Fold each of these.
Amino acid sequence: MLESIRRTTAYIQSRINGFEPEVGIILGTGLGALVNEIEIEKQLMYSNIPDFPISTLEFHSGKLIFGTLAGKKVVAMQGRLHYYEGYSIQQITFPVRIMKMLGIKTLLVSNASGALNPAYKKGDLMIIEDHINLQPDNPLRGNNDEELGPRFPDMSQPYRHDLIEKALEIAGKNSITCHQGIYVSVTGPNLETRAEYRYLRIIGGDAVGMSTVPEVIVANHMNLPVFAVSVLTDEGFPDELKPVSVEEIIAVAREAEPKMTLILKELIAQL
């Protein structure tokens, strides 16, 4: 893996003319419009980057965006990768390792997820304070390279408390409904059954999605501070469960996106 990381990093560096990003951003389903706020200096298609996996979803663009946002140099993934697309768990977390090697000091992650907590509503935001990993694999499984991180990384604070507090202050100041809760990561791509939603709530979940946790594990492995936020696009309440389509989920994500963008921009300005 280290050879691939070095090869990919060298290729990207040869294309971005000395640009050194401070902040990495992973944009979730229906949440790619944040790039419109970036003063773009360079864009690279995933398909042109050696060893870089390609997003297979029609609503994920598949670009690395380099530029300035809120006064900070950033690199944004417009289009994330998912385990259900058929990639290995190491492949979908590969971009996090590349962003770290490019120089980022903080990773910001967004996703679209389903609400499990009945106090939450569709269209609300939830800052992730902790997670439950129900993915079938771990990105750290296999031989460990000490250059990347320790064999047994600590996960007592996978999401930085200081960043959570700053984001909650920003939300409150701007009258944005923003919860703080536990995210459960599952494989997908199907949405959950009534019984599964009930189970996920019983084990402590406030929201459920199909991403984020593998990337956060790798970020912690590389000693990279993480902030993550979910846009709650549907409601997984067993006694009131209604069918939902991906199109509806994306529509809700896009409607709520300006609130998330405001929080991320102000948070980046304070880094």
Note: The radius of gyration is 17 Å.
Amino acid sequence: MFKGHTTDAADREKGKYTLIRDEEDSQLGLYDKPLPCFGCGIGWFSFLLGFLCPLMWYYATILYFGNYYRKDPRERAGLAASAIAAMACSILVFIVVLILLL
């Protein structure tokens, strides 16, 4: 007998098996659903789009600190990358403003 299969008396005579559904072996999981934004997730999409419009980095930072990644943990890396990019952008703008004022 194979794992997940059972036979009863009538099926044994015919040589047929009946499949038993196992709750631990479900076919559809949390990670089977594709991510939004062309499959790369909101975080990475915001990170890439942030090079054209840096406000997207700040949007993803708000999502990161708002624990948006708890809905789907695959989003965490992209949102963190966007938060780091937003911080780097802020520091760069601060340094440019200091140089222009002095």
Note: Residues 39-102 form one domain.
Amino acid sequence: MNLFLHIPKSAGSTLRYIIKEKYPHSFGVVNWHWTNWKDEIYLKNNYDFNKLSQNKIIYGHFNYGLHEHINEEVKYFTILRDPFKRVQSGYFHILRDSHSAFYREIKNMSFEEYLKSKLILDVDNGQVRRISGVGNEVPFGEITEIHYEKAIQNIEKHFLFVGLTENFNASLFLLSKLMNWKSPYYWTQNKGKNKKAELINPVDQQLVKDINQWDYKLYDYCRNKLDSQLSETDFDEQRFQFRNKLYNISLFPTKVLKKIKSKL
């Protein structure tokens, strides 16, 4: 069994769509809103892991460690994103969604105020938190090299693959080979429109870097690993984009029809 650890705001919605297409009758979901963190008691009380174990794949905003509830051999895979872009995307996501947790507290905050508020734990090295498995056990500002090293250890021992949002096509190309998928092409999902991105300045960028130093190190580690894997393939970005465009054209009539039906 494979576990897709969906790190929030990292192109995971597109990959979830792909998973549903590949495993229409054999996927499970373990998920909660990315602004909240859940503990072991919550998992045990809210999910039937005997039933979930019957699937070929499980996805969601969980942490490393979910496999301890599953009576199967598992491998994780995930997609990382540039830490600044990911934190920025989370901020705009909350501003767009009046139903999201902490919307009332954050809606009038500047990005700098959002970062300093410490309201959203995911802002603080959220990628290391999930992959190391510490989740919300470590307070804001207290992620260390120990947690970073644990994340690396987990990746090397228990992850089938780690891709990058900024190199999504290449990541999907490699993942498709590892998962024996016939086609790596996709219909893009949930692409946010951050219309206020130009308001964020270098001071904000440095603040994100100061808060997320271990996420930056993890991202660099996985980027080098991905580059090494790609060097051993015949991946061509332009060819992939062309074929993916053809795939989207072929799907367009079906997508339009579904959208019309949903409004009837």
Note: The domain at 2-233 is CATH 3.40.50.300 (Rossmann fold).
